[in-house]
Design goal:
The complex is a heterodimer of chains A (61) and B (456). With 61 residues, chain A is mainly α. Helix content of chain A is 57%, strand content 0%. Chain A starts with 9 loop residues before the first helix and ends in a 7-residue tail after the last helix. With 456 residues, chain B is an alpha/beta fold. Chain B has helices at residues 33-41, 44-50, 85-104, 144-161, 168-171, 178-184, 193-208, 222-237, 250-253, 258-274, 289-292, 308-321, 350-357, 368-374, 379-389, 403-410, 424-431, and strands at 3-5, 15-20, 23-28, 57-62, 67-71, 107-109, 117-120, 123-126, 132-134, 279-283, 300-305, 326-330, 361-364, 392-398, 435-443, 448-455. Chain B starts with a strand and ends with a strand. In chain B, 43% of the residues are buried. Classes of the chains: A mainly alpha (61), B alpha/beta (456). Chains A and B meet through helix 1 and helix 2 of A and helix 3, helix 4, helix 7 and helix 8 of B.
């Protein structure tokens, strides 16, 4: 590993675990909501994700 | 052969950038050889080039003490404090996308500075070739804090308090401090789980462990880190800013009828062909309407405007039409970006960078009355400014009879008489110091004059 030229911050490294856990819950919730909505035929609005139109198709989320 | 080390490239021990005979080259130090070789042989660099995520490079020489690579040249490096909100967002998203792709290929971004990204050919692109390191299983993201200080911080401040905060990095080159960021945000930001964890909790932990320099590894699986990235990606993708600016009313304000508008468009085209221009800067270019008329003729156009919403509108059109030749940036002519950083040589001023590109022409439509009457800038000084932009200038001069000029003059109240100098004759005399008049045309059915000028 290359030594960093800045301090990554001990707290910032610890907190990532918590932030990831919260993000996980949020993403799960969003997926579930998306599925429920699609059962009723409600489509999420499609945001202008710039990458989709400029990148390889494999990259689509 | 002339070679000069880039004065903004000194932080990272892995290597540095230098300019040699107009090409951009990078020295890779032995400390980074292992990474560089692996990035090359695994095809990961190539993958990043193919996706247009990373500026491409070619190896030019290799010894035991240094490897030299040459990067494709980007004509005009632009900085985070020159981007509109959507551009800033896209730069942040690109960083997250690259980190995710890195993880999938067992690499990681070792830094996440917003200065590692610039806009080129209509899109953000990562320009720091040596920012990649090997991923160590279950290690957290070392650049996470930097990402928050450089990207999420300014974006969230902008969401709550407006687009002035897009310029945060001009003041804090290393990113906004977490404590300050957490203190500034309103109470309702605590209700967002993403902001609660990634800003408030982060700031708290950062302070708590401030003097504790222990090693933290093995606390975050790759799958969890990807969730962290996806969570941030999702949040940033859906961020919006709701701030009306002058631009949003612009189309009710233009002082043209359709005919005058067409005349102006034709004149711009003729002028650009007559100077045989290939590159251009459009000062006060709004959403790029007039520059777009030159799309067939020009290879590279910088469209600068003070209004972040107009710049964003321009950027949206670029995305929609997949335009590569237009670069939209936020520029305040009355206070252009200065030289920042150590020795004043880390981030370069707007004027220095424009001079460096040697543009063929400068377009200044419907802007001189704002500079002169709103900014109180004498003609002699604005002429000097424009003379630094390019050897050819097309400038529109709204006369005193123009309704906008009337409005601006009336806003001066008792001070109005101070602006008696604002007329055609004085304009021509003062500009004659720097330019000669090539052509002068009054636009029919308007109170405006177009001048084609050539620098002396």
């Amino acid at each position: 590993m290359i030594p960093l030229y800045f301090d990554p911050g001990t707290g910032a490294l610890i907190v990532q675990f918590l932030a990831a856990a919260v993000a996980g819950v949020l993403l799960f919730y969003r997926t579930v909501m998306h599925k429920i909505k699609s059962l009723f035929g409600i489509k999420d609005k499609n945001d202008d994700d710039f990458m989709d139109e400029t990148d390889n198709s494999e990259d689509k989320k | 052969m002339k070679s000069k080390r880039n004065t903004s490239s000194f932080r990272d021990p892995s290597g540095y950038v230098f300019i040699e005979d107009d090409s951009v080259k990078r020295v890779v130090n032995p400390i980074y050889f292992e990474q560089y070789n692996q990035l090359t042989s695994s095809g990961f660099y190539q993958l990043l080039f193919d996706k247009k995520y990373l500026v491409s490079h070619q190896e030019v020489s290799r010894t035991d003490s240094e490897i030299i690579i040459e990067a494709s040249k980007i004509p005009f490096i632009n900085y985070p404090y020159e981007w509109s909100f959507l551009q800033y967002k896209h730069a942040a998203l690109l960083t997250l996308k690259i980190q995710k792709l890195c993880l999938e290929n067992n690499f990681t971004l070792k830094d996440a500075s917003a200065f590692n990204i610039t806009f080129h050919e209509g899109k953000p692109i990562f320009i720091d070739t040596l920012s990649f390191d090997f991923y160590q299983e279950n290690n957290p993201w070392l650049a996470y804090k930097q990402f928050i200080m450089h990207f999420l911080g300014p974006l969230v401040l902008t969401k709550y308090f407006g687009q002035d905060h897009l310029k945060t990095l001009a003041l804090h080159l290393e990113g906004i401090s977490l404590q300050k960021l957490s203190n500034l945000l309103p109470f309702k930001s605590y209700l967002s789980p993403i902001l609660l964890t990634n800003i408030h909790l982060l700031a708290k932990y950062d302070k708590k462990y401030e003097s504790d320099k222990k090693k933290v590894n093995n606390n975050l699986s790759k799958a969890s880190q990807i969730k962290l990235l996806d969570g941030l990606y999702d949040y940033i993708l859906n961020l919006s800013v709701n701030e009306k600016t002058e631009w949003d009313h612009y189309y009710n304000q233009i002082n043209y009828n359709e005919v005058a508008y067409q005349v102006k468009k034709e004149f711009v085209k003729d002028w650009f062909s007559s100077i045989q221009g290939k590159s251009l800067i459009d000062i006060g270019g709004n959403d790029g309407t007039f520059s777009r008329e030159l799309k067939e003729l020009a290879d590279f156009m910088i469209v600068a405007d003070v209004d972040a919403n107009a710049v964003e509108q321009n950027y949206k059109q670029i995305l929609k039409n997949k335009e590569k030749s237009i670069l939209p940036i936020v520029v305040d002519v009355l206070n252009p970006v200065a030289n920042y950083g150590f020795n004043n040589q880390e981030r370069f001023s707007f004027i220095d960078r424009v001079k460096e590109v040697n543009l063929d022409g400068c377009l200044a439509l419907a802007v001189i009355h704002h500079i002169t009457l709103s900014g109180n800038i004498p003609f002699s000084l604005s002429a000097q400014f424009f003379s630094k932009m390019a050897p050819n200038l097309l400038i529109e001069f709204p006369t005193r009879a123009d309704s906008w000029v009337q409005f601006l003059l009336d806003s001066k109240r008792e001070f109005k008489s101070h602006f008696d100098f604002y007329n055609e004759e004085n304009f021509e005399n003062e500009y004659a110091v720097y330019f000669e008049i090539v052509k002068k045309v009054k636009i029919d059915s308007s109170e405006r004059i177009l001048y084609s000028l050539k620098r002396r």
